[in-house]
Specification:
493 residues, alpha/beta, Rossmann fold, seven-stranded parallel β-sheet, three-stranded parallel β-sheet, 19 helices, 42% helix
Length: 493
């Protein structure tokens, strides 16, 4: 079995990361497949998988090409056996398992046996493609904002594509040509349908465009982030194996916003999903009467930090979109009381949003323009946190706030108003932070002043909250998502 592979045939279909190992060097026309084949590191397993597909699709007169693909599949299987994550969709896992028994091509007979075994499995599973990464569609409104939802979506998509080997596509409805605020890895695709579904009469056009895209792309999983398309997901049944959603707000947040009718529709829609994921244990308990296929997964840390905030600076920080949810008006009133007792402290607010100018006017009205500074949103909030001594939150509702994890990563204590959900599930009042009841301006101001007047208490709380971050690492949380996706896909085999 010492047939050559023609460089011209393979050059355009074998990924560059692999082609350098199996193709002829520049100036040569062929190479021998029985030479020492050097495989990429485990984190390039996705490239190996794609290479296997490409090699098996080559129309070559001899079985040398599919034989090389068998070597690739066998390498992937052995990598998986060592406990390294490999992008195997459930059906393709069966194929790789079967192939691996016969894929060491020491002689022509063994090679032919491996090919026979591979063809037999393919016939059983009725799959045209031998190996492919699992494809996931994320349905989102837009990804140009600087909010926590966009931050965690892009972070998860990047990790799923680069570390776990998924084919990830973020499908937005109305990006309007704007760039993403957070960097999107080149392995993650972004497709915008160009339909504003905030206009109810556009929903039909949006669903037609989405269905056409699904028929073209054939994703294994469609995962909605629970926007207006959520109540129409049932229309996708039969087009995609797994239909699921993940909610980044609490159940009761819709009641806070006066969206009771929408909440009732969401409760009904959640019951028909293959899986519905919420962020907190508290919210899982609230949703449990309505949704049988319920899961809970926390948000992961978006960054780690070798440095801890020294907590010596005379200022606090807050960040988020300037809208009704974040309730910055209450924060201004809180800081007015803090300023009366500690005029040498100041507050920095970072964010964009429709209500930004209104908050700026309120700051001037209260005479606090010298101590409350408003800044644009920043993609490097970590640096600002490291230079602060506490973080403030007055939100009316949250899911599981990304920013609380980020403050914990740098050892920054938080003073928050209780709200559904998140702060009270993450912060132990008086130990790893401070909590005040929603709308209780006086109590929150008192707790801020307590931290200002007790530097050692600040540092103690900073250490306590930093110790909690080990439960929210990217590896731990993303392993949960990986296991969930594979389990859901396997249930549809």
């Amino acid at each position: 079995m010492r047939k050559a592979l023609r460089n011209k045939e393979l050059a355009v279909i074998v990924p560059a990361e692999f082609a350098g190992d199996v193709l002829a060097k520049p100036g040569r026309t062929h190479t021998n497949i029985h030479g020492n084949v050097q495989y990429p590191a485990a984190h390039n397993a996705n490239q190996l998988a794609l290479c296997a597909v490409s090699l098996l699709e080559v129309k070559a007169p001899h079985h040398a090409v599919p034989a090389l693909a068998l070597i690739v599949l066998d390498k992937l299987y052995m990598t998986a056996q060592r406990g390294v994550q490999v992008p195997l969709a459930p059906t393709f896992q069966k194929i790789a398992t079967g192939v691996s028994k016969h894929a060491w091509l020491n002689d022509e007979d063994t090679g032919n046996m491996g090919l026979f075994r591979l063809n037999h499995i393919c016939k059983d599973t009725k799959k045209k493609r031998i190996f492919a990464p699992m494809k996931i569609f994320y349905l989102a409104n837009t990804i140009y904002n600087s909010a926590g939802l966009e931050r965690v979506l892009i972070m998860k998509a990047n990790l799923l594509a680069t570390k776990y080997g998924y084919d990830v596509v973020i499908v937005t409805n109305h990006q309007k040509g704007r760039p993403t605020f957070f960097p999107l890895d080149p392995h993650v695709r972004h497709i915008d349908l160009g339909v504003n579904i905030h206009m109810p009469w556009n929903m039909g056009r949006y669903m037609r465009a989405l269905k056409a895209l699904i028929k073209e792309e054939k994703p294994d999983i469609v995962n909605s982030l629970v926007f207006r398309e959520f109540t129409h997901l049932h229309e996708l049944k039969g087009l995609v194996p797994v239909i699921m959603a993940e909610l980044h707000f609490a159940h009761d947040s819709y009641l806070v916003r006066g969206k009771r009718l929408r909440l009732r529709r969401y409760e009904k829609a959640s019951a028909g999903l293959d899986c519905f994921v919420v962020l907190t244990k508290e919210d899982k308990q609230t949703w449990s009467p309505y949704c049988p296929n319920l899961e809970q997964i926390y948000n992961p840390l978006t960054f780690t930090s070798d440095k801890q905030a020294p907590l010596e600076a005379n200022h606090a920080i807050s960040a988020g979109r300037f809208d009704k949810q974040k309730n910055y008006a209450s924060m201004v009133h809180v800081w007015k009381k803090v300023h009366e007792r500690h005029p040498d402290w100041n507050l920095d607010l970072y964010g964009n949003g429709k209500k930004k100018e209104k908050i700026v006017r309120l700051i001037h009205k209260e005479g606090l323009e010298d101590v409350i500074k408003v800044h644009p949103a920043t993609s490097d909030i970590k640096t600002e946190m490291l230079n602060s001594s506490m973080y403030l939150m007055t939100s009316l509702y949250e899911g599981f706030p990304m920013v609380l994890l980020e403050t914990a990563a740098v050892g920054l204590p938080c003073v928050c108003m209780r709200c559904p959900c998140g702060p009270s599930e993450f912060i132990e009042d008086g130990v790893s932070g401070m909590l005040a009841d929603q709308g209780d301006i006086d109590t929150m101001a008192d707790k801020i002043c307590t931290l200002i007047e007790n530097p050692e208490l600040r540092k103690s709380m900073g250490r306590a909250v930093n110790a909690k971050t080990s439960d929210y690492t990217q590896d731990k949380i993303m392993d949960q998502w990986d296991a969930l996706f594979k389990r859901l896909a396997a249930s549809k085999e």
